[in-house]
What we know:
By secondary structure, chain A is mainly alpha-helical.
Amino acid sequence: MQKVIAILSGIIFGLGLSISQMIDRQRVLGFLDAAGAWDPTLMFVLGGAVGITVITFRFILPRAKPLFAPKFYLPTKFNIDRDLILGSALFGVGWGISGYCPGPAIASLALGSTNALIFMGALIIGSYVAGKVPAPSLPKPIDSTSAKPSTASSS
Amino acid sequence: MAEFSWSSGLIGGILIGLSATLLLLANGRIAGISGIFNGAIFNLSGDAQWRWLFIGGLLIGTLIYEYGLATKPTPQGALAPISMIIGGLIVGFGTRMGNGCTSGHGVCGLGRLSQRSLAAVITFLATAFITVYIVRHVLMF
Lengths: 155, 141
């Protein structure tokens, strides 16, 4: 069942990204260009998405466990540290240069976008390098799967 | 560029929020794309399968829109290999280092009222706005 859910939520996510035109990187850049012909679309996308999760997560997270999994896999870090800020700052720079963040870039692969293909190839290299940077500045790879699924129990 | 449509933005955003809701409620997982992708491609935690299934779904959803729902093809824009290589390297490095991107910190982290994610979102939005300003209005690309 978890496999069906994974595919289904991926499909809904892909529909959301494409219906909202976030797979058009010019539209994303139009949002980020406050000094140009500003395109507010991204604000409605993020607002709509967070508007949903803020409400639904309030009811989901207090549950003892998810419907089909033994536990919730939540981020295990709570402090605002150097890696979070420096990493996020770098992400914003790359986002501004390319107009792609990871979701829309992956989605655009489905459209045969050469730009997205090049971007994703470079992204894999960048992520690989970040995973190799020694410990003091970066968490060990097993933690850095993300601020995302906590991997502690599944590994 | 097509004209701004707040309704398609809002509908798309709501779908993304519902996707994140489904994944958390049913599987207990956070719908953060950079984390899902890194975990899939490097098999960081031995649970790559559901991640690949999610990514497959993401591609299917995009295809359903493009070839089933869209009234006109999504513009691909001009080929920009240099921007893609530089941007991709930095995004890959930064999202791994900062543990998340627009979806993980933005959609899910803000939904969890995480202060870490709020700090991340403010930071990456700020540097993205500054970067686009510099690229478009100072360097004039």
